[in-house]
Amino acid sequence: MLIDKLVIDQHFRHQDRLGHMLMALTYNPDAIGIGLDEDTAAFIGPDQKLQVMGTGGITVVDTSRLQHSAIHPDRRHAPVSMIGLHLDILVEGNAYDMSAHLASIGR
Q1: Is the pTM of this model over 0.90?
Q2: Domains of the chain, each with CATH number or no CATH
Q3: Which superkingdom (predicted)?
């Protein structure tokens, strides 16, 4: 396995998939969500640092600071509350340390 506890989605902003990512993370609150735009790649090294390459962006949805998440399986279309969610949007040259849960800008 390359990395544990990761939810990945592609064509992220073009397909407006943030809602799908948030729903997946309510069921997997220990995971980090990675949304990849077209022509963009996330390279994850053994040090758990994600590097962004390409012409698009990567959306990182981090639940490590999540204080509250409520989903009701019996109320399928009811709104979901998530408090303490952290979101970063990264472009080429930016990085995300998945161990420290911290984004950084390129040099």
Answers
A1: no
A2: 6-104 (3.40.50.880)
A3: Bacteria
